[in-house]
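Case study.
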Amino acid sequence: MSGRIHTFSQAEYEKTNHKTSKAVNQQTIGEEGVILEKKDVVIIGGGPAGLAAAVELYRKGIKDILVVEREEIPGGILKQCIHDGFGLTRFKTTLSGPEYAQKFLDEAEKENIRILTGASVVSVSHDRVVTTVGRDGLKHYEAKAVVLAMGCRERTRGALGIPGERPAGVFTAGVAQSYINLHNTMIGKKAVILGSGDIGMIMARRLTLEGVEVAAVFEIQPYPSGLPRNIRQCLDDYGIPLYLSRTVTKIHGKSRLTGVTVAQVDKQMKIIPGTEQDFVCDTLILSVGLIPENELSLQAGVELDNRTKGAVVDEFCQTSAEGIFAAGNVLHVHDLVDFVSLEAEHLADSVAEYIQHGGLPESGLKILTDTNINHTVPQKISGKNDFTLSLRVNRPLTNCEIQILQDGRLLQSRKMKKAIPAEMIQIPVKRENLSDTGNLEVRAIC
Amino acid sequence: MLKQYICIICPNGCEITADLEDGEIRSLQGAGCVRGEKYVRQELTNPVRTIASSVLLDGGVLPLASVRLTEPIPKDKIFDVMKEIKKVRLQAPVFVGQIAIKNILGLESDVIVTKNIPAR
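After joint prediction, the assembly is written out as follows.
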C-alpha cells in the first residue's frame, strides 16, 4: 500500500533537490540583495485546492512547482472532516475527508511533487515574489505564476458581536471538530449550536455519537443555511430540533459557559422583545459562515469581490494581478470539496497555458447580476472560451429560471424547481453562443 | 398517504414524495435518479446509515485514527456500533483501508481506518 505522506522540511527539500547546482543557477539577486529562487509555480496552501492544482499542473508538463503548507501534514481541513460523503462527483464513490486528501497526496508523491510543510507564506508581491518563513528562516521565491489556495476561515463570536460574558465553552464548529477528531479532547457535555451551516450540523451528529447532549440548533435566517441532506441525516436522525428565525442574544457564565439566551427575530432580523428564552448548556458551537482567507491576496494588490470576499477572477481563475490565480474556498466558499478540486484543476490548465504561451486573453466582459443572484464566479470573461458559471441565489426561490444573457440575447438557461442559497449552482456556457463584445447578465425569473 | 423524503445518498438532496398504501409504494415523485427510489424503499423497510468516528492510536504522530464503516448499518444499531468502536486501540503506523473491526456485530460491515498515520 502506498504509504507515508511525502513531506519535506526546508533543509531536506534542498538536500533532496537533485538539481542543486542548477537551482543555484536559477537563483538571482533581487533588490536589496535578497536571494530569489526561481520557480514556475508557487502554490500557497496544501489543502484540496492546492494539491489538486499541483497534480494537474504536473500532468500538463509544468513540473517546477512548489507547494507551501503551514501545517506539518498537508491535506488542509480534510484532515479533520472524518465523516463520509466526499468524492461522489470527482471519484464516483463516497469517501471520508482524509481518504479524499490521500488520493491527491498519493498522486503528488508518485510525481515527486515537493510540498514544503511547516512553512508559512508571509508575503506575496504584485510581481509574484513569495516570501516564506519555515524551520530554516526566510526564503524568497520568484514565480512565473502564483496560485492562491489558502482556503477560508470561520466567522467567530467577535464577528457576530454577541453580548454577554467571556467564558470558556464557546467554539466555532471547525475548532470543535479539530479538538474532537484530531486532538482527542472532548469539549463539553451539553451543547447548543448557533447557525445551521453544514459543519455545525455535522458536529451536532458527531457530538451526539460521542455522548454529548445537543439540545438544539438555532438559525437566524428563516431558512436553513446548510444542505437539506445534512438536516435529515445529522439532525432529524438524532432528534435534534432546528429552530429558524432565532439567535443567541446573550452568553452566560464566568469561567465556563452556563447557558445562553435565545430570542426570535423578525423579517429584518431584529430581535423581537419578550421572546427571550434561556437554555442551560456548557458549550456553544458557532456555525455562522466562512470567509475566504485573503490577507495575502490583498497584500499582492489583488482586487476582491465584496460579495464573495474572494478575488475577482476571469474564466481562467486569474485575478486582477497578472500571473496570480485563485481557486477553491479562497476564491468563493464551496459546499462540496469535489467542486474545489475541479475548480483547481481547471485553474491548473489555465496556469499551464499562461506559462506555455506567456499570457492569456484579455477578459473585458463583465458578468452583471440581478437582485435574486448573490454573486457569480467568474465575475468577468474573455468571451473566447467555454466556461462554467458558479453562482448562488440570494434567498430560496421556487419554480424559477436562471438565465444568462449577453446584450439581451439568451445564451443559456436552467429551470429549477427549487434554488437555495446553501447550494452553489453551476451552469456551463459554450463558446459558440458567446460574442467577444458585450457584457453578460445573470438573472433569476420566478 | 403522501410522505416526504429527502434523499441523503448524494448532495443533490432530492425531495421525494412517496404515495404509500399499507407500507407499499404506489408511486414516487421527485427522485433525480434510481438511487432515490432505492433509498425510499430502504427507509420504509429498514433505514440504514454509515457512520464515522475515531479510535485510539498508540505510538502515532496523532493520538487518534479516523475510521468509517464500509457498508451502511441499521439506524437503530448506530450506538451499539459506536460502543464497539470505542473499545478499539491500534498501534501506529496505520493505513487507509486497514481493517479495525471485521464484520462489526455481524452486520456485514467493516470498520476501516481512513488516514495514513506514521509511527512517532
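Observations recorded in class. Chain A touches chain B through 34 residues (CB under 8 Å). The CA atoms of residues 41 and 145 of chain A lie 5 Å apart. We will return to this complex in the next lecture.
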